[in-house]
Amino acid sequence: MTAAISTDGASFAVAAWSEVVAARGVVVAGSLYAAPAGSRVDAARALARAGRAVHVDLIVDPSGQHRGVTPVELAEVLSGVPEARVDVHLIPTAPGTNPATTTTAAAREIDAVLAGLDPSRLDHVTVDRGTLQRQASALERFRDRGGAVWLEIPCEDPATDVPDVDGLLVMLISSGTRHDADPASLDKIAPLAARLPVGVDGGVTPTIAGAAALAGARRIVSGRALLSLRTPNPHPKGITMSQNLPDSMRTSVLEGAKTLTIEDRPLPQAGPGDVLVRVAAVGVCGSDVHYFRHGRIGDFVVDGPLVLGHELSGVIAAVGAGVDEARIGQRVAIEPQKPCHRCRECLAGHYNLCPNMEFYATPPIDGAFTGYVTIESAFAHAVPT
Q1: Residue 296's beta-bridge partner residues?
Q2: Cα four-point dihedral sign 111, 112, 115, 119
Q3: Which SS3 state, helix, strand or coil, does residue 43 take?
Q4: What are the residue ranges of helices labelled H in the chain?
Q5: Which pLDDT band holds residue 178 (cuts at 50, 70, 90)?
Q6: What are phi and psi of 279, to 5 degrees?
Q7: How far is 44 from 36, CA to CA, in rounded Å?
């Protein structure tokens, strides 16, 4: 974690992966929509201290009311965190509804918001195509006062027709959803970046962020993968299920060729971005048999205690900071690896080619012939119940 501040007994943390992306000259912005109401100024302060920007979604429903971040909270951020770099995304609908249904009340509220914004305190304002047309006069006045206007490019928009704007925000998931971004959506970035500054938003994970930066994105917006609220709990590195977890677990340990022992080992704890998985089943791979019989595979030599097993499934028992608590109890199949997220292959989205890869049950990395394992959340894939 790169920054954390206290707020009512909790703290906001900014994920360290953003440092790697920012080092490429990319602006990494945290979405305040990911922070609970009443704590968004603290979230903005944590982002600013970490050198990250602040992204504010102002969502206006058909009645003209705000959902999520409000103009009052935006004003509090601008006055309370003057050092923050802020951009605003005006969304004329509630998440999951049709933007084409924007009402007169919503349009009136968007006009009022635009009139009240100080362009000197904002990097830019992003709007969709409908708002660009309906609020053309208000947006023109905003630009006349020195403001910059970006256009939202939905994931289903081929972006072949780009109007006169100052930048583009490519959405990597559909509005109102909470899935990880589709890497195929990144194909839009390079051709658009040749014409205008491009940002990305929606389901951005560390891997997606690196790939987007490599493709030419100059601004990357991330919510829960970047910004997390940590609250005190009995397991400080994870949020556990309601029932208590055991303190130890039975583990099969390969001591050398044809030598296995059973040990009681302490449970690992889920770090930021990780999940703790209770192992349900593990396959025995040919590599496990080879290590057991010969104590090595090629250059990989068992020269110390090693836990075998990498073909596993299980149930998420706890989550680390930045991972949705709703994942607790989810049945998952595990992609048993840990890429570095820093090398060129990782930043291009080809994490499977990472030269620094750590893989389960490959010396000296322990595997899954045990009770519980930890893994990066993105590599714990949900399976049908």
Answers
A1: 301
A2: negative
A3: helix
A4: 17-22, 40-49, 71-80, 104-116, 129-134, 136-144, 189-193, 206-215, 286-294, 344-347
A5: low
A6: -70, 130
A7: 12
Instruction: Give the single-character DSSP code of 181.
Output: P
pLDDT of residue 179: 63
> Quick one: tokens of 293?
């019989």
- Considering the domain 248-382 in this protein, what is its CATH number? 3.90.180.10
Architecture of domain 11-230: Alpha-Beta Barrel (3.20)
49 residue type, one letter: R
- Bridge partners, 327 (sequence order): none
Model pLDDT, residue 346: 81
Rounded-to-integer distance, Cα 381 and Cα 359, Å: 17
What pLDDT digit, counting tens, does each position of 330-374 carry? 999 999 999 988 888 887 778 889 998 999 999 999 999 999 999
0.85 exceeded by pTM:
no
- Sequence-separated (6 or more) residues with CB below 8 Å from residue 298: none
Q: Where are the alpha helices (DSSP H) in 176-275?
A: 189-193, 206-215
Q: What angle do CA 100, 166, 208 make, to 5 degrees?
A: 75
Domain map (residue ranges) of the chain: 11-230, 248-382
- Say whether pLDDT at 172 is over 50: yes
